[in-house]
Specification:
With 263 residues, the protein is α/β, with parallel strands linked by helices. Helices cover 31% and strands 8% of the residues. The chain is globular, with a radius of gyration of 27 Å. The two termini are 52 Å apart.
């Protein structure tokens, strides 16, 4: 008999039959436990309902999306250490993956753009231990790519970091080649704030690549904002000061404002 909804009765674990514990009794108890757990489990939400927005199932090619999984797999597998894990153990292979072309792109294709990287929250605070993307920048430089690291305040607001990014972009040598900028975590809203506030800087950027970017803010940051303001924002870190800028209305933007004005 199934339990009433929301009621999960205790199971008679350790019950004996005829004074002797038997494997059959344990099996029956275990089976009863599974049945009770299944009855008490919440009902799964439907995949669609009357209010679901209509969607269209199509292929990547018909949607105008370039499938670069094969190229990415080839680039990743070349960089795995000898004797390490197999490539298929590191990167899941899904159906329909297209093998990469055998031809190698000409060297000048790697030099038509400049590349830059923007770190995330607290990166400046930990720069004495490690710098994000440092190995990637070294590898790109050896390959002849003009690669740059744009530092931002580890505890700065998006507005303050946008101004800092604008200063660094303006300080780059004159070069007609546009930038491809990779932004990590909070570095993405910092960069989007730059695009919004500084169109002259945005004009020098050909593409923005998000690496786990907080494109629409962060629920985790919202949840712990009070604790951050009370404890971490005032924590004395010589290499990682909290920066503020005026928001144009006489007030100051608090540190770690993790949403850009586009959100």
């Amino acid at each position: 008999m199934e339990p009433a909804p929301g009621h999960c009765p205790r199971l008679p674990f350790g019950q004996t039959i005829g004074g002797a514990r038997t494997a059959l009794a344990r099996g029956l108890v275990a089976g009863s436990g599974l049945a009770v757990l299944a009855a008490c489990a919440p009902t799964a939400a439907p995949l669609y309902s009357d209010t679901t927005t209509p969607v269209v199932l199509t292929t990547l090619a018909e949607a105008g999306i370039a499938d670069l999984r094969g190229r990415y797999r080839a680039a990743l597998c070349r960089r795995l250490p000898a004797g390490g894990p197999r490539c298929d153990d590191v990167l899941l292979r899904l159906p329909g993956e297209i093998a990469p072309p055998s031809d190698i792109p000409p060297p000048d294709a790697l030099r038509r753009y400049r590349v830059a990287f923007v770190p995330g929250l607290f990166a400046e605070c930990l720069r004495a231990l490690a710098r994000p993307f440092s190995d990637v920048i070294d590898g790109l430089s050896r390959a002849g790519v003009d690669a740059h690291y744009f530092s931002v305040s580890g505890r700065g607001s998006t507005a303050a970091n946008a101004e800092r990014l604008a200063t660094q972009i303006a300080a780059l040598p004159d070069d007609p080649r546009p930038l491809i900028v990779f932004a990590y975590s909070k570095g993405l809203p910092d960069l989007l704030e730059l695009v919004l506030r500084r169109p002259e800087s945005a004009a020098r950027i050909a593409a923005i690549v998000s690496v786990a970017g907080a494109a629409n803010g962060s629920l985790l940051a919202d949840r712990h904002l009070t604790a951050y303001r009370q404890w971490l924002s005032a924590l004395p870190l010589a290499s990682c000061g909290a920066t503020f800028v005026s928001n144009g209305g006489g007030a100051t933007v608090p540190p770690c404002q993790c949403r850009s004005s586009r959100s």
